[in-house]
Amino acid sequence: MKRHFEDLQLGSIELFCLAAEAGSFTAAAQVAGVTPAAVSRSIFRLEERLGSRLFVRTTRSIRLTDAGRTFFEQCRQALTQLVEAQQEVMGAQSVPSGQLRISVPTTYGHHRILPLLPAFRALYPQVSVDVHLSNRNIDFVAEGYDLAIRVRAQPDSSMIARLLEDAKLAVVASPDYLRRVGTPQTLEDLDLHECIQFELPSSGRRISWLFNVEGKEKEVFGQGGYCCSDDVLGGVTLAKHGAGLFQTYRFIVEQELADGRLVEVLAPLAGRSRPFTLLYPHGRYVPQRVRAFVDFLLEHRQQWAAE
């Protein structure tokens, strides 16, 4: 393997990252235990080696350039991996520890992931968990996430993808709504009903309802005067209060179906699903806290599949 760091020392990169995080050479120097002049000289040599300015300097502050921001995002992740690899070799990571950052869709987080976290932390009390509940796509490197869960994740060679479940869909409505409007028996009957829509926040596109017709998937775009975006639970709440029909994941409404607050309709045409996938960056080194959480979730796949 060819050497790449004869001149470009890791110590200079570390000082650069400290300065970028602190927004100040002086603050970086205090953390590193060196003088501000030493930080400035180190970063200047780094810029010379790279042939690019990393900071815009004024008399009062420093600011990353576009090149500096890109370099910082990559270096921060690389330095974190080096520290964790060193700790593992030295035995400090024989037990999973550190902060685990996860990005999870809102609904899946509330109904699947958050209820499991106390059990996970009981097994691994030295792991702290930071959960970001959102339906937007994230940048693993720039935002420092360890894992993400996504519905219908697109193939990505930089990511390891593990299927968690194919979540079954169901069309539901309140008993009051069905008494007032009637129960649909065919897909054509949907034209006579209030079909609550869900809009993807990333694209503004309303998602279709999926059905199983003679073994083939059929998409239906219903019409209605209600539309929710970003949080599927909004559609569920509308359905519970008699606004209309709504197609959602069965695991979200299991309790409401069991106690009668919601009723499933068009059950003979059900059977469609959407996949939820666990994603984490592809690399030679995966921290033990990430491995532990991946294994923990995969143990629950059979339980979810049986529901």
From TrEMBL:
It comes from the Bacteria. It holds the Pfam family HTH_1. The keyword DNA-binding applies. Residues 8-65 form the HTH lysR-type domain. InterPro entries: LysR-type_TF_proteobact-type, LysR_HTH_N, LysR_subst-bd, WH-like_DNA-bd_sf, WH_DNA-bd_sf. The keyword Transcription regulation applies. Keywords: DNA-binding, Transcription, Transcription regulation. Belongs to the LysR transcriptional regulatory family. This is LysR substrate-binding domain-containing protein. It comes from Pseudomonas agronomica. The lineage of its organism: Bacteria, Pseudomonadati, Pseudomonadota, Gammaproteobacteria, Pseudomonadales.
